[in-house]
What does this fold into?
Amino acid sequence: MTTQQSIVICGGAFAGLALALALRQGLGAGVPIVVADPALANRPSRDPRATAIVAACRRLFETLGVWNEVAGTAQPILDMVVTDSKLEDATRPTFLTFTGEVEPGEPFAHMVENRYLIEALASRAEAEGVELRATAVTGNDVRPGGVMVSLADGSTIDASLLVAADGARSRLRERAGIATHGWEYDQSGIVVTVGHERDHQGRAEEHFLPAGPFAILPLTGRRSSLVWTEKRADAARIVALAEEEFHAELEQRFGLHLGEIKALDKPRAFPLHYFVARSFIAERLALVGDAAHVIHPIAGQGLNLGLKDVAALAETIVDAVRLGIDPGQPDVLERYQRWRRFDTMAMGFATNTLNVLFSNESALLRSVRDIGLGLVDRMPPLKNAFIRQAAGLTGEMPRLLKGEAL
Ligand SMILES: Cc1cc2nc3c(=O)[nH]c(=O)nc-3n(C[C@H](O)[C@H](O)[C@H](O)COP(=O)(O)OP(=O)(O)OC[C@H]3O[C@@H](n4cnc5c(N)ncnc54)[C@H](O)[C@@H]3O)c2cc1C
It folds into this structure.
C-alpha cells in the first residue's frame, strides 16, 4: 500500500470540520485528513450565537451523522411572518406569511445553537479518525506534486491540497494574492438571545424596519435569537447601553406579543460586509465558507452557502481520488470553482438587492415592496418556489445536500 499525501484544512469551525468529516467518510483511512485551528484548544465552544440551518444543509449533517447529536437542541422553524413598518408604528402589519415545510414533516429550516453544532462536528470528526491540531497554519509552499504546509507548532505536513476554511479574514486567501470584490455596509448586526413569557410556536419573524431587518428566530424553550440590523454607529451605541436602556430599545422593536422579554446574554454587534473572492482556487489551494464569500445576514444564508461549498468540494475531491486523480490538480479544482462561484454571485446579488430594497425609508419604495410582498403572499406556487430556493433545494445540488452519502 502506498502512503497518500494528506489533505490539510486550515480552520476548524463549521466549514472546515464539515469538510473534514465528508472527506473522511468519502475517502476512508487511506488519505489522512488534518484540520488545524488554534480555536480547537477551547473546546467545548462557548459561542452564544445560533444559526438558521436550511433543509438541504440539515440533510448534509444527517448524512454526516451529526444531526442526531444536535436534533434535541434544534428548533424547527414552523412558519414565518414578514412585516414592514416604521419604528414608531403601534402595530406591525403582516405582508407575507410562509408555512415552513419543504416536504411533509420536513421544516424548511432549523435554528441550531453554534456551540452544539461545532462540538458535534469536532467530536464526530475525531471519532472517525480526522486529525485535529490545535494550532495555526503559518505557511504553504507549493512544490512539484504537492504543497508543504507549515504549522505554528513548528511541524510541517506534506499535502496534496490545502483548503482555506479560515474565515472572512483568510490569511491563506491573502497570501495566495486572491482579491475580493465587495464593500462594507454602513450596518452592523446586533446579536442577542432573548427570553420571553409566551411560546413562539416555532414562528420566525422578519420585521423590516427603516434601519434594516429585525429578525426574531425561535430557539428551544421560551427563547429566541435576534439578528437586529442598525447603522454601525447606532449599533455601537445600543450594545454599550446600560441594561435598562438597552431593554427599552429592545422592547420598542420586539413588542410585547410574546409577553415580557429579557436579554439572556450580552448583545454583540457584528459589522456587516459583502464580498466574493475573485477566485475560489489557486495552486494546490481551495477556498470554502467565509474565506470565499461573506454576504448580508438578511436571509440567514451565509453559512448555508459555505456548506454548499463543502458539499461540492468534497464530492469533487472524492470523485477524483476514486479515479486515481490527484485532488490538488488544477482541473479538479476548476470543477469545484465552476460549480460554486456562479451560485455564490447569484446569492450575493439577491441579498444585496433585498437589503437595498428593505433597509430604506423612501415612501415610494416602501409602497412598491409592500405591493410586491402582498402579491407573493397571494400566489402559493411562487411562495413555494421561494421556500425551496431558501431551503437550498434548487439548482445543481451536490449529493450530500440531497442526503446521499459520497
Ligand atoms: C449577525 C450574523 C448572523 C448570521 N446568521 C446566519 C444564519 O442564520 N444562517 C447562516 O447560514 N449564516 C449566518 N451567518 C453567517 C455565518 O455565521 C458564517 O457564514 C459562518 O460562521 C462561517 O463559517 P466558516 O467556518 O466559514 O468560518 P468561521 O466561522 O469564521 O471560522 C474560521 C475558523 O478559522 C480559524 N482560523 C483563522 N485563521 C487560521 C489560521 N491561520 N490557521 C488555522 N485556523 C485559522 C478561526 O480560528 C476560526 O475557527 C451570520 C453572520 C452574522 C454576522
The chain has eleven helices and 22 strands. The mean pLDDT is 92.
